[in-house]
Amino acid sequence: MIEAGAVKGFTIDANIIDGLNTNGNLDNRILLSIGNLRTKNVAALMADIVAGEVKSHMTTVHDTAYAHLQSALKAHTKVWKADAKAVKDIAAALTPRESVADHASGLFQAFVDGISMGGHLLRQRNRHCRACDPILRRRSTIRRVEQET
């Protein structure tokens, strides 16, 4: 269908990205291969609400990793007291935990840019229960908007 030109675009949902984005960095080869479809003039589209979900899920993964690392450093210091200064230096060198959401947003933006999806985020005019109601979903108007920076 793609070779025949019958497919002009497709939408990407959060569950697809989450299933492939196991490390929270959007660097899965299958996800990155979406960018190859632009050579076939096929647009990848993502609703803004999906983009928000993906960034939120990434932030959760990154924050959990940060918490695990801090916990491990604390446990190490309890056992290896002589390493306390080195562990403190390592902890001080880490990116601040407050930057986790910005880091996830930056990775998401790099992913969107990398697969040439810029300008293909969709904004739903009325988000009221569209996912639950097939009639609303069919009648919903989705318009293309420029990607927000």
User: Which range does the strand content fall in?
Assistant: 5-15%
SS content category: alpha/beta
Largest sheet: 4 strands, mixed
The gross shape turns out to be elongated
- Mean pLDDT across all amino acids: 78
Distance between the termini: 34 Å
Q: How is the topology of this model organized?
A:
Blueprint (H helix, E strand, L loop, with lengths): L8 E3 L2 H7 L8 H4 L10 E5 H32 L4 H10 L6 H15 L6 E4 L9 H6 L2 E4 L4
Parallel strand pairs: 1-2, 2-3
Antiparallel strand pairs: 3-4
Helix pairs in contact: 3-5
Give a brief outline of the structure.
The chain is built from 6 helices and 4 strands, in the order βααβαααβαβ. It has 149 residues and is α/β, with parallel strands linked by helices.
Word description of this protein:
The chain is of the alpha/beta class. It has one domain (9-145). It is built from six helices and four strands. It has helices spanning 14-20, 29-32, 48-79, 84-93, 100-114, 134-139; strands at 9-11, 43-47, 121-124, 142-145. A four-stranded mixed beta sheet has the order 1-2-3-4. Helix 3 packs across helix 5. The model is unreliable at 125-149 (pLDDT under 50).
